[in-house]
Write a structure and sequence with these properties.
single chain; mainly alpha; disordered N terminus; 0% strand
Length: 281
Amino acid sequence: MTAAAPTLSAGRPPTRRARRRPGDLGARLAEWLPPLVVFVVVLFLWEGSFLLARIQSFLLPRPTVIWASLADQWPTLSRGVVFTATEALGGLVVGVALGTAAGLATARWATARDTLIPIAVGASTVPIIAFAPITINWFGVESMLPRMTIVAVMVFFPVMVNTIRGLTDVEPAALELMNSYAAGDRATLLKLRIPNALPYWFTALRIATTLSVIGAVVGEFFGGPLYSLGIYITSQTGISQYPNAWAAIVLACALGIGFYLAAVVAERLAVPWRAAREIVR
């Protein structure tokens, strides 16, 4: 009686039993229902308690006041959303691409590991407030490049670290099986290491999407067009138009949530077996 050969667990799609069932949609909706209920309740409490207490709008405007400002200032705010989203997306693409390439090189070659990891650690410790004026001095106030550079630096480190972990944190049994098939380094990378690294990479991407919006908005505090979200928030606060500033803050939050949800959808499409395994669990 021969022993069973080890099987590849990383990167392999799940069996038919693990696939999504029709009732899973209801389960998903049930998971989202409690946070939605809490969100609505918080809005009602926010509106009602602040109205009864007659709290001044400069402390925290009521949701209806913020919504009215959002509708009134939409022509300006819509331009700001497009501008800030372009900065965040451009820096996100550059940072993710460089972080992925650095992770691949670092996981493959020891020389690259010794060279790139200190650079990545140093980049991750640079404060945005200190870096933003420097990039504005390099590229100019009106250019998108200063904020794109800030975003790229911010997302580089988490993408690189998670890529390295995904490529190296492989089950020994899976590597032994690839060796038993006489698979070379390239085949092992394509068939085993990269599929194993995809969940780690998408986790980093979800983190990077939120960081990209934060980096773009904070970078705009130091310069940019008057309609950009960061400049708009600081300018409206300076003239005590706090509802307008909060309207821009809400749009910045919505932008970050939109980027995050796009990353989640991309992960569902690229790594469907991971979602199926989570359902089975």
